[in-house]
Amino acid sequence: MVSLLAAAVCFWINTLLLCSHALAASLQPQIPSIASFTSAGDSFQLSPNVRIIVDSAHGLEGAPSALSYAQTFRSDLMSVAGFAHVPPVEVLPGGTGFAGAPVIYIAIDPTMQFALYNGEPTLEGYDFEITEYTYTIKVAAAIGAWWGAVTMLQQVALTAVAGGTNISLPTGAGSDSPGWEVRGFMLDAGRHWFDTAFLSELCIYASFFKLNEFHLHASDNLWNPDFLYGTGNEGWKDLYAAFRFQPPPGSPIDGLVPRLNESWPENEFLMFQQTCSEHGVTVIPEIDTPGHSLAITQWKPELMLSGQPDLLNLSYPATIPAIKSIWQQFLPWFTSSEVSIGADEYDASLGDAYVSFVNEMFGFMQAEAGKSIRIWGTNEPSTEIISKNITIQHWDFPDADIPVQLLAAGYNVINSEQAFLYLDGKYSDGGVYPYTLSLDLMFSGAPDGGGWAPNIFSPNDPSNNTSPNELHLRGGIMALWSDWGNNATTMLEDYYQLAQSLAVVGEKTWAGSGMRASELSRAEFEAAYPILNAAAPGQNLNRVVLPEYGDVVYKYPFTYNTLTTPYASVGPPYTLQFSVMPDTHSSNADFLFSGEDSKLYVANLTFEATGQLYPLGYVLPVGTYTDVEIHATADYTYAIINGDEGNPRYWYTVMDIWGEYMEVANMSFAAPAQQIGGEGFVGSVKDVVLTLGV
């Protein structure tokens, strides 16, 4: 449902976006922008009795099919438009609406042709025609129907911000297709735990901005030289390292995953991939070897390179068979035609062994599962040559590859250049990376003053950039790393960093910079983004709730030991007020409040989120009431105790930065709104009020 936040945003945006239901001269600027649209000067009236019809000739072909996408679209349309019900999707030879009964018709013609900027064909394009009673999406394949449907959803959101049951869209005709094949984001799940429920919501959100790949970095370790290196040093055995795919019981590699509660069972991972696929997004799993491999050497120490336990010894006879055995266990899980083997930051003195390994893994993946591979760009001097069938994902100057040289040599390249596209969980060592992707860089950071696009690798050296129509340039992927581990962020805090970043990458990898007259200006992007973020359907990463009255989510003025509420979690900004009196029989393990994303425990007023504990350090007195106010924004959470507003107490975390120094940072928690008291809590809580805003 379109939230009250969207309505508030609508009031303040500039005239680039119209918030009334009056006829607009053209489509609203959306993210990503569409290639072309010519208005016909009339209006299409969308109403709850709209029929969604899929072409029967080809509507059931493919997986997902156009019918499957249309069914997801129907649910999303109800959410975005605020309709309580829309008729079920129909499969018919055609469809034309009439007054009071509009039609959305998905027509599939496999002979239609769309092209990327480099001239390569794409199935992701679509044409659309809007008449007074019929909105037709014309595509060559089912995936084009999905992106065409997303375009309509965004137009509905931008037009219907203030709600209502009748929504007008301008009539006319348009055409759209992406500039690049790969449009995605990477999340470092090797050094931070993310459950598949969160990952699925993130996939759905990214799809709303027409991103089509989710690169999942699923194995890695923290980097601390004091633990990893040095003669006789055994600290590496205890340094945090994780491998996230959970082997079945009895598997020969089940010792690889000691933290089963921080790993994905097969059924959960398959469901996650299916959810992404139903929203046009492919999951690209990464198992990183032969570097970043401490999780493997903690399992089998004999595989490590002497003196470097996070690197695998490729010359040891059992090493490559062990890596292949890991992939053999999980390849049947992966539905993508391509996987990443990582292969970055290895020992440069072992370049021949490294290149031989990469090429051998390519042959293995082809023979074992018919899959292609990607590697991170790296510089491993060698007399051998990496196969040109392998895609190189560029990320760094000058320590890694030179992308224009790779492209000229015939390698396929994906742009993940850190100067534009890297984030780190909450904190950046030395301020190298921004908190969210810089709009200054993304809209004007190219050497010519234009914005970033996948063909832009350097903000200051034009010789390192190429043309948008470069044949071997596949696209771009932004990255959010988790260098500081599990305790640096909650899962929702990672979403806060990604939310706007995904939208701007969606614009720039679909439309680019300087290729289309219809591309968004920064002002248009900043006007459209808050509305689309609030309206994005199929997930609720903002943890938005509709309050019972005014800004009050709930108010319980009586005394409780245990109480369940209708709300699982409430996102910031919020204020949670209550009075609490534990007695002598209350355990420190008892929680005061519990919800989908967090818990608040009696002991030291400790928040738990993403499996980590964050104590406030305040001990509640026994046998007397303490008044507590918790205030939270997306940047911090603090408590006011007994009305002492001059002494706010903040929840924070302490991060170990490369083993060199410690960094303190504030924590943001969603309100644990679902249950008051529980799990043996002895005492009472009264006067509980949860309101929106701080």
Automatic annotation (TrEMBL):
Residues annotated as domain Glycoside hydrolase family 20 catalytic: 182-511
GO biological process terms, semicolon-separated: carbohydrate metabolic process
Enzyme class per UniProt: hydrolase
Domain of life from the UniProt record: Eukaryota
Keyword annotations from UniProtKB, A to Z: Hydrolase, Signal
Reaction catalysis annotation: Hydrolysis of terminal non-reducing N-acetyl-D-hexosamine residues in N-acetyl-beta-D-hexosaminides
Extent of the signal sequence: 1-24
Regions that span the bilayer: none
Keyword Secreted: no
Short name of any one Pfam family annotated for the protein: Glyco_hydro_20
Catalytic residues as annotated in Swiss-Prot or TrEMBL: 345
InterPro entries, sorted: Beta_hexosaminidase_sua/sub, GH, GH20_Enzymes, Glyco_hydro_20_cat, Hex-like_dom2
Record carries keyword ATP-binding: no
GO molecular function: beta-N-acetylhexosaminidase activity
E.C. designation(s): 3.2.1.52
Family that this chain belongs to: Belongs to the glycosyl hydrolase 20 family.
Name listed for the protein in its UniProt record: beta-N-acetylhexosaminidase
Organism: Postia placenta MAD-698-R-SB12
Lineage: Eukaryota, Fungi, Dikarya, Basidiomycota, Agaricomycotina
